[in-house]
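Researcher: Sequence of Transposase follows. Predict its structure.
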Amino acid sequence: AAGTHSDGVVESTHNRDQKEFYDFCTQELTLEKANKNIQKYNYFFNYKRIHSALNYNTPFVYFNKLRNS
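Model: Prediction complete. Tokens:
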């Protein structure tokens, strides 16, 4: 049963990555453009996107709450 749960988590993560990142990278990219897109997505993921597993906080906010508690 643990394998089934893990598969679901991986699938969910892949689907989210597909919708939030890869679908926006359909044009031909140079390495420089790809790196910029990755940096933008990393910023979005850590500073703007809320995560249900983090009590609907961004990772940045959640980390700061833990650090200051």
